[in-house]
Amino acid sequence: MEYQKTKKQSSSNRKGRTIVSMILSFLIAVALTMAALLGSLRLGFLNEKMIVRSLNVKDYYGVVCDDFYERVEDLSIPLGIPKSALEGIVDTNSMYNDIRASLEASLTGQTYQPDTGKLRTKLKENVENYAKSREIELGEAQQTVLNTYLEQAADQYVRATKIPFIEYYGRIHGFAEKVITVGILGCIVFAVLAGFVLFRMYIWKHHAMRYLVYSTLASGLMIGLVPAYLLLAQDYRRLVIEPEYLYQFMVTYVTNGLLIFEGFAIGFFGIAALLLLRIASLRRRLIKNSRG
């Protein structure tokens, strides 16, 4: 009778320990997933280097420069100004420097205004030289139109050097970085404490490790499934974004960000695999010692 009572109590204790272990395993999985989610955002979508790297795809700066010339050419056609009058007003190197300066300013929450003085001077000189070659006299009315044209060309250049969403990024970056850092640390501390409690519940540590395997596998699936689907389906490539160079930048930026999520998922699967190997090693050692 006493034996049956002890056996029932032991069975009840095992069930209770199993339930607590499952709950702790779930909580560790949630904490690890949240830490990975925040880490992926910081290393991917909120990473300055990732943005700069995405800008280098398909000669972003050269394409922006070509697009700028096309827009100024569209402004020139109604005025009868030929394409040849636009030569040399802007080069890829100056465009590159102004885009990078605008990007760096936006990332720190500041604004950058490129110097368009040289552009206007060169463009005005080209137009006046063209008028002289055609023996066209520029009167007061023509000068007013020319000044308006120069302002419009300068506005197009300023527009070309700015990346639309970066200014919003700059506004949230400082705040988000602090929140993400605190969030990651909090999740890691919670996961470590929960893991400590889990290990304290078992004499044989490989029993506790099983639940860590469940946690890491669950975290890998939770952090990796949706990004994997998006990378395979490529639905974000169907977004209509103009102009083309901005579309290419956004697609590359999103792709790189999703790959960071997949990196964390692979990391979790790798940790699970190492834990399984460790569990197998501990079990073999335990069996060997019991036989010895």
In short:
By secondary structure, the protein is an all-alpha fold. Helices cover 80% and strands 0% of the residues. The longest helix is centred in the C-terminal third of the chain and has 48 residues, at 244-291.
List keywords for this structure.
292 residues, rod-shaped, mainly alpha
What does this structure look like?
By secondary structure, the protein is mostly helical. Helices cover 80% and strands 0% of the residues. The chain has nine helices and no strands. Helix 1 (2-45) packs parallel to helix 8 (205-233), helix 3 crosses helix 4 (92-107) and helix 8 (205-233) runs antiparallel to helix 9. The longest helix has 48 residues, at 244-291. The two termini are 34 Å apart.
- How much helicity do the residues have? over 70%
Radius of gyration: 31 Å
3D shape? rod-shaped
User: How many beta-strand segments?
Assistant: 0
What is the element string, with H for helices and E for strands?
A: HHHHHHHHH
Count of runs of 4 or more consecutive helical residues: 9
